[in-house]
Amino acid sequence: MILYQLKCKDLGFDSCDFIATGNSETELKRKFIFHSMCFHEKELNEMELVQKIEFDNNLNQLLDKQTNYFF
Ligand SMILES: [Zn+2]
Fold first, then answer.
1. Total structural domains in the chain?
2. d(Cα 71, Cα 4) in Å, to the nearest integer?
3. Are 5 and 66 in contact (CB under 8 A)?
4. Where in the sequence is the domain holding 62, given as residue range(s)?
C-alpha cells in the first residue's frame, strides 16, 4: 500500500512528471533525493546555497503535510 506521494513539480521542477511514492516518509525522501540527484543534478548544482536551503525546507514541509494528511 502506498501511503506517501511527492511530485517533482511541487518542488519547482515544472517540466518533470516524476512522482515519488513510498511507505514511509524516510523511504519517500530517499527516493526523491535519489531522483533529484539523477535527473536534476544540473539544476541542483546551479542553485545558490539559499535556494538549496529553501528546497530542503520545501521538501520537509511537503513531507510534514503528508504525515498530517494521513494520520
Ligand atoms: Zn524530477
1. 1
2. 12
3. yes
4. 4-70
d(CA 70, CA 9): 21
Cell numbers representing residue 8 in the block: 517533482
Residues 6+ apart with CB under 8 A from 14: none
Q: What's the CA-to-centroid distance between 30 and ligand 1, angstroms?
A: 13
The separation between the first and the last C-alpha atoms of the chain, rounded to the nearest angstrom, is: 15
Q: What is the mean pLDDT of the chain?
A: 88
Query: Cα(70) to centroid of ligand 1, in Å?
Result: 24
Which amino acid, 27?
E
Predicted pLDDT at 40: 95
Kindly give the distance from the C-alpha atom of residue 1 to the centroid of ligand 1, in angstroms, as a whole number: 23
Q: Please determine, for residue 16, whether its predicted confidence score (pLDDT) is greater than 90.
A: yes
Whether the Cβ atoms of residue 32 and residue 19 lie closer than 8 Å to each other: no
